[in-house]
Amino acid sequence: MSKDIKSLRTRIKSFGSTLHLTGAMGLIASSKIKRAYDAMAAGREYSEAISDVTKRLAACPECSKSPYFGINRPKAEEDTEEGSVPQKSVTRLIVIAGDRGLCGGYNANIFRTVRDMEYVEIHPVGKRAFARYSPETEENLNGDEEPAYQSSEYYTYEEAESEAKLCCEDFLAGRIDRVGIVYNRYVSIISQEPDVFWILPMQRGTERCVDTGVFEPSPDELFGNIVLKNFAAKLYALVKESFACEVAARRMAMDSAKKNAQQMIDDLTLEYNRARQGAITQEITEIVAGAGK
């Protein structure tokens, strides 16, 4: 009986430590929520403004022959035994995952979405994505000098511009045929859904084109510049939205873990009290029985 009581006391202490840990992590996530939401709102506002301009230009006849629509651009070839043949369609995915775990199914849902897709190349954003799709960089994730682009929390607009420039150059050169961004879409603090946003090739605008005057320096150059800015703004906004989802998911996961730990402590405490009461009753019975002899 004494062994059972000691075991229960140890388990209660263990769950107590877990309760304090999950409570602390929940508070840390709560402290980041406001900043994450503000960054998501700012990124979304700028992205929507650039997207509106891009759609209006895409509807203009002067921009209708842009290679960003997937036309008038070279097609990559591959060498075979029968000679050079057009390369199969190449899809590049920019996969945005979190920097840490303990956030429910946040990262797993992203990886499951990617697993069910057809792709050729992956450009990861976030430490978990790098560890998943770039094993050779895993040993660098715990170093003192971590490349900033590995973090979704500290992802900057300059890094988004660099990624946008690389993808646009590869698309125009015919090395890739389309680009998609896999991210978590923020629905509410208790709901985040994995989604894919296809950013290249561009879709022709459905809005009515309004004559705005003369294009300077030229329609193609102007449209190319705005597509690049639209790509960078959208990527940056989706990274910030994904980080807000990560923080919200971790907050909910820690709240759930805290409640479960408290429930386990309550159940074990009740069991401990019963065992202790049984042990005391047994000792009293033995004392009374011994006194009667």
Concise structural overview:
The chain has 293 residues and is of the alpha/beta class. The protein contains five helices and six strands. Produces ATP from ADP in the presence of a proton gradient across the membrane. The gamma chain is believed to be important in regulating ATPase activity and the flow of protons through the CF(0) complex.
Task: Write structural notes for this entry.
With 293 residues, the protein is α/β, with parallel strands linked by helices. It contains 5 helices and 6 strands, in the order H-E-E-E-H-E-H-H-E-E-H. It has helices at residues 2-58, 106-115, 127-133, 157-172, 219-291; strands spanning 77-80, 83-86, 91-96, 121-125, 178-188, 191-200. The strands form 2 sheets. A 4-stranded mixed sheet has the order 4-3-5-6, with helices on both faces. A hairpin with a 2-residue loop joins strand 1 (77-80) and strand 2 (83-86). Helix 1 packs antiparallel against helix 5 and helix 4 (157-172) crosses helix 5 (219-291). The longest helix has 73 residues, at 219-291. The protein is elongated. The model is unreliable at 136-148 (pLDDT under 50).
